[in-house]
Amino acid sequence: MKSKRSPFAELTGVMALLRSPKGCPWDKHQTHQTLKKYLREETREAIEAIGENDPEHLCEELGDVLLQVVFHAQIAKENGDFDIDDVVRGLVRKLKRRHPHVFGKTRVRNAAEVVRNWHAIKKQEKAKKLRVSSSRVAE
């Protein structure tokens, strides 16, 4: 019988099981630090697959990159920092914020304007983060 869970929910469930007491000793032992090299390696392999123009290989490598994202999110959840839903919600907010020509009233004439706006918005976001960080330090 086929699972009624979404493929993404099944993936996060598998990762939670792998990290659980009944899971895999290697997976349970991993930390953000120990996984850094794998994230770097899998990203490099995905970039290589793009260069090969091989959709099947790219699909596989993107799965490996996604594994790294889900792995790190599971560790963060166990640490009480954030979970995969927080990652996804943050990404959705960022995409909407950085595409005001789609989700707002900004008008653009071409892709070059989109890129300029993207960089301007990103710069504003960084400045805001710096102000918030500075105010926290002052408290």
What do you see in this structure?
The protein has 139 residues and is an all-alpha fold. The protein has two domains: 82 residues, Helix Hairpins (Orthogonal Bundle); 42 residues, no CATH class. The relative contact order is 0.07. The mean pLDDT is 93. α1 packs across α4 and α3 runs antiparallel to α4. Helices cover 78% and strands 0% of the residues. The protein contains seven helices and no strands.
What's the main sheet like? none
The total count of strands amounts to 0
CATH architecture of the largest domain: Orthogonal Bundle
Bin the strand percentage: under 5%
Structural class: mainly alpha
Distance from N terminus to C terminus (CA atoms, Å) equals: 57 Å
CATH classification class of the largest domain: Mainly Alpha
Helix % is over 70%
Uncertain segments of ≥5 residues (pLDDT<50)?
none
What overall geometry do the principal axes of the alpha carbons give?
Answer: globular
Average residue-wise pLDDT: 93
- Under CATH, the topology of the largest domain is which? Helix Hairpins
Q: What number of structural domains do the residues give?
A: 2
Q: Strand-and-helix sequence, N→C?
A: HHHHHHH
Helix count, per DSSP? 7
Rg over alpha carbons: 19 Å
Report the CATH superfamily of the largest domain.
Answer: MazG-like
